[in-house]
Amino acid sequence: MQPILSNYTASITELKKSPTQLLKDAGNEAVAILNHNVASAYLVPSELYEKMIDIIDDYYLAKEVEKRLNYDESELIEVNIDDI
User: Fold this and answer.
1) How many CB atoms within 10 Å of residue 41?
2) Per-residue model confidence (pLDDT) at position 48
3) How far apart are CA 14 and CA 22, in angstroms?
4) Contact 43/31 with Cβ under 8 angstroms?
5) How far, in Å, CA of 62 to CA of 57, rounded?
6) Taking the chain (84 residues) in consecutive chunks of 10 residues, what is each chunk's mean pLDDT?
7) What share of the chain is helix, strand, coil (3-state, %, to 5)?
8) Taking the domains of the chain in order of start, what are their residue ranges?
9) pLDDT value, residue 57
10) Domain 8-69 falls in which CATH fold?
11) Closest by CA position to 4, among listed 26, 33, 29
């Protein structure tokens, strides 16, 4: 059985009738759109979506920082500042 990852649900029929009302009723939370009682999509308010994207960006940035901090000393290149 597929979990529903939202506190709010609506049918596709309800979505067709009034997507704006669904978002309003859910506040700033996602709405699981159900098709035959199975989540087929999630309707996400723009503010929440932007937060999600920020979290994902921060995650990938942290991974890149971690990768660069775990360098091998043999990969370092000595540079004279006067040559730059």
Assistant:
1) 13
2) 96
3) 8
4) yes
5) 9
6) 92 95 94 95 96 98 94 87 88
7) 50, 20, 30
8) 8-69
9) 98
10) YefM-like fold (3.40.1620)
11) 33
